[in-house]
Specification:
mainly alpha, three-stranded antiparallel sheet, 10 helices, 7 strands, 46% helix, disordered N terminus
Length: 303
């Protein structure tokens, strides 16, 4: 059972499919055909309750200020994530990027780090191919389905890397990456943060955690981290202090980072010298100017 909060009213939701996020294997060892999607089966507190409760909750979220969904704030969020994921503020330069960073998730590519081993790359290519069947990546769908849940490059390799770079020259593929980033990561994180009563900064902290750890139910996925934080502190929607809750959430995320496999993936500076700094300064609206450090490098937005 997973506890969720509907604007301050805790309820329990039974979840029948369990899987891990943030690098946990999604491929059952005994039967590759039983692989599960880390997004299609993620628990969705925004859909908990009766249809009437869902409509009321959606109406209340929609009536709230845009927060991180404001275009200017969303641009800040994109640049903050890019600094942590790619050591750059120029997130739009990453559409054609593709490499295996050795984290066990196969290829990492595009503006948000779509991975061949964590299903989101597969979802992106399926979405793009549905709209543009003759794209350079369409022929790699069988291989992407086969390697999903693993770090394998079988059927991909250098030709696939070249095809990704070629596809990224197409504005429609860049648009598809934007759409799937929002559908899988940005929109669920922001709406859930609003449901939990969080500020623009809190919405960004949720979003960054969703990107980094994946929307998984296990202790290393976003929903597992949120659940651990909710055991340690009440959300603002529950009447708790937002800063105390966000510190608990960052603590839970930092614990997961500390268990990662490589020195690079164990780096927690995106929390320690970025998000925690904004929180300590009380910059709950994520206003500029912003100064932070990731991997020892200093970044700034605004004068």
């Amino acid at each position: 059972m997973t506890r969720v909060v509907l604007f301050g009213a805790p309820i329990a939701v039974a979840v029948s499919v369990y899987f891990g996020g943030g690098g946990e294997s999604l491929r059952p060892k005994d039967d590759p055909s039983l692989r599960v999607s880390p997004t299609a089966f993620a628990p969705d507190p925004l859909k908990a309750g009766s249809p009437a409760q869902q409509r009321e909750r959606d109406d209340r979220i929609d009536a709230l200020p845009p927060g991180l969904a404001d275009p200017a704030k969303k641009e800040i969020a994109a640049r903050l994530v890019a600094s942590a994921e790619n050591s750059t503020l120029d997130w739009k330069s990453r559409y054609g990027a593709i490499e295996d960073i050795g984290d066990g998730n196969g290829y990492t590519a595009g503006i948000i780090g779509f991975c061949s081993g964590t299903n989101d790359m597969l979802q992106l290519v399926e979405y793009f191919t549905d709209k543009h069947p003759d794209n350079p990546l369409a022929g790699y769908l069988p291989a992407l389905r086969e390697v999903d849940g693993s770090d394998s490059h079988e059927g991909l390799g250098a030709p696939f890397e070249a095809a990704w770079a070629k596809a990224a020259e197409d504005p429609e593929f860049r648009k598809a990456q934007d759409v799937m980033r929002d559908r899988i990561y940005f929109d669920p994180a922001v709406r859930l943060a609003k449901m939990d009563g969080l500020s623009t900064l809190g919405q960004f902290i949720y979003y960054d955690a969703m990107v980094l750890h994946g929307p998984g139910l296990g202790p290393e996925g976003f929903y597992g981290i949120r659940e651990a934080a909710m055991k340690a502190a009440d959300t603002a929607a529950e009447g708790g202090d937002e800063k105390a809750y966000l510190n608990a959430f960052l603590d839970a995320g930092r614990t997961v980072i500390g268990r990662q496999k490589t020195e690079q993936t164990r780096d927690s500076s995106r929390i320690d010298t970025a998000q925690r700094v904004f929180l300590r300064e009380g910059n709950m609206d994520l206003d500029t100017p912003l100064t932070w450090r990731v991997y020892g490098e200093t970044f700034r937005i605004g004068s």
